[in-house]
Amino acid sequence: MIVLRAADLGDLSLLQSWDEEPHVLESDPNDDWGWETELGRSVDWREQWIAEKDGRPIGFMQIIDPYLEDSHYWGEVSRDVRAIDIWIGNVSDLGKGYGTEMMRLALDRCFLQDHVTSVLIDPLASNVRAHRFYERLGFKFQERRTFGLDDCYVFRLDRADWKRKA
């Protein structure tokens, strides 16, 4: 069973080491997460989680309200949307179903809020494995879009589709 706990400054070295893993760099090559600052900053529009399996950290997730998020990364979005970032930290934990369970936990959190109608995710256009992963969860391709230096596919999961899959 995987549980989520709030990420904090005690996770700094862990997250920095995961950021250097080749599979993480491959999926997120151009972002500087600013862990030293962001882990100590509490904002209403973001949740940052460490996923643990049997008490051992295995991954990171962030759920944001892109309408309120201060960098406006997603551009203009409605108030009823959430966006998720997710990765597995160690390559040895890939392919074990942990990402699926983490996403289900995150999506449950998002859709617990009655006003949330959909969730966005933006894997790199080149990350075909991620595209298939999100499609299996019910996400649908929306558009190809450039975020900073990253060529991404935007996928969307609507509440009705999540309910059908859940």
From TrEMBL:
One example GO MF annotation: N-acyltransferase activity
Keyword terms: Antibiotic resistance, Transferase
Domain N-acetyltransferase: residue ranges: 2-160
Tagged with keyword tRNA processing: no
Domain of life assignment: Bacteria
GO biological process: response to antibiotic
Gene3D superfamilies listed in its UniProt record: 3.40.630.30
The keyword Hydrolase belongs to this UniProt entry's keyword annotation: no
Protein name as it appears in the record: N-acetyltransferase
